[in-house]
Structures are given as C-alpha cells and as structure tokens.
User: What shape does this take?
Amino acid sequence: MVDLLLFDLGGVLVDFSGVREVARFLPVGTSESDIIERLSRCPHSEAFGRGQLSRQDFGERFVRDWEIDLTPERFLEEFRSWSKCLLPGAVELLASLRPRFRLAALSNSNELHWERNAQDLGVPDLFEVAISSHQVGFTKPDPRIYLATLDRLRVAADRVLFFDDLHQNVIAASALGIRAFRVDGVEGIRERATLERLL
Assistant: This one.
C-alpha cells in the first residue's frame, strides 16, 4: 500500500536549465557530462544547496572559480532563472494523482531557485509539503534528508513512492526502505505510475 508520492523537481516536474546555462560561459566544446561532473563537485553549489552560504558569497565564489565574465550580482540574476517552468503535463498529472495519494516534493535546491519556484512558478502550492535541501541542511543522496522528510510528513518509508531523475538518489532512498524509481520527466512518471497502477 502507498500513502504518499514524493517527487524530485528538476528534470522530473520542472525544466531546470543549469547545465545548458553554465555551458554558455565555458569554452566552446565543453561537454554536458563534463559540466555535470564539475557541478557535482563544486563546493560552492553544494554549500549553497545546504543553506550554508549567502547568495552573495555564492555568487562571488562561483563567478571567481568558474571564471565567468559577469559581476556576481548579474550572475545571480541569471542563476535564479535557471529554474525555468513546470514541464508540460506536470500540473495535470499531479491533479490526477491527488484524489488518491498525499503528494510531496523533495528537491536539492537553494534559496534563489526555491524563491523562483515558489514566487514565480507556484510549485509548493501543488503539494501538501515541498521541501528544499537548503531548508534542512542536507542534500540528496545523504540519508538524513530522506529521514527528515519522512519525519516531517509522519509517514513510514515503506508507504512512500519516490520519483527522481538521478540514480544515486534513488539508490539512497531505496536503502531506507522507500520504493524509489528513476524517471525522466513527466512522461517517465506517467509510465511508472501506470506500471504501479497509480493511475
């Protein structure tokens, strides 16, 4: 039995363009995989995502270390916009699931992208609870972020179905007893939801 459906946001329900945007500032020919790898090791992005850096400190450090030809202030304006929009069909899919399940979101995010998601896109309004890593001080795949989420939602791990686009996040959730699936966008959720007889 499943009580709660838990969703990642970027790449699952929200169009997040970070890799594409960073590529604009790097030498021609820098591959997407190289950017993803470097972002995953970037201490400033990680600290900002855990709520341990102010936006100003993050902007200054990111621009400096990535050698981006923008002022920190201008970069932060660009950075905020990387959370683009809800993917087509996201609102409708959630609406079709809401009558039967509790819905929540768990995202590796930061204060600027969360501000964009909340104020401009209305993402938190689609869920009973929406949690960002910068609010709890941990990022996926750290087990503590999942445990904090389960505690806040007052739900047992084995009553949760979790959808994320990153393999390591799915593995970490599964290790705690959460039924977790890697999906690609709204259609990926829909396919898995159909297989699990959620729709």
Q: What stands out?
A: The chain has a mean pLDDT of 96. The longest strand covers residues 102-107. The beta strands are 4-7, 14-16, 83-86, 102-107, 129-132, 160-164, 179-182. Residues 18-81 form one domain.
